[in-house]
């Protein structure tokens, strides 16, 4: 992005701060990324704790710049939200993830693909039309698509957001709460959200097993989910001891580096096609 920055800086008065310049360069870069097909999805496997059987993959967006640098979503999603680009990016992600999942299904690698939604996509965009279009164009069955929302987005968008989630639920797609336990509204909204799955944030697993407080928290979330008849996906599982702990707990699904890191579609298929052909 350095060349780009040089080109854009000359339009600015010196008074403009470094941070604003950086953001402007990113904004310009992101628009170009969308136009020039520089976004790519990587897929991280999700499996059953008990059997190790693969059942899904989470689509995670990356931006490969002209200069060949791979920029992670942590560096551009928030900016895309501010710049109003998140709707276009989100539509691209939905379309591409559904297309890929359908292609894999036809090739004998049937998976449920999970797509991250920005709160703004739900609150301001026409998310229902976007999802419907992605399913229609790909031919993917709605039951093979899961949409991940974070708890935080419900703050401030409660009524409109909730109505959209119910619309999505009626389309037959699965909904999950991402980073569960890190937001403010978890418990209050849980009852009202039409979700089927809680993705337990990886921070809860940091000191598990071993730390009694950490273990108690994970067990409590698991039992809460059970009573509400929600599935649990434990995120960020890195060590065999963590997996063994989840097994003892009876937690259903997991995801993390222990199972597999996110891979580009081709590498993902190469790695997982044989493994899943049970
Ligand atoms: P997330 O949804 O919580 O995704 C999981 C993140 O944790 C991913 O980072 C993944 O690479 C990383 N991760 C997976 N397993 C492990 C592990 O065992 N240990 C550790 N330390 N990390 C692990 P990534 O791909 O950089 O994504 C960061 C965040 O960006 C995501 O967090 C999600 O909130 C957001 N994001 C990613 N793709 C999209 C997208 O298409 N749309 C939107 N709106 N947000 C996205
Ligand atoms: Ca492409
Ligand atoms: Ca996620
Ligand atoms: Ca997460």
TrEMBL record:
Source superkingdom: Bacteria
Domain EAL: 23-276
MF annotations from Gene Ontology: catalytic activity
Protein name, as recorded: Diguanylate cyclase (GGDEF)-like protein
UniProt organism field: Halomonas campaniensis
Full-sequence range covered: 471 to 748 of 756
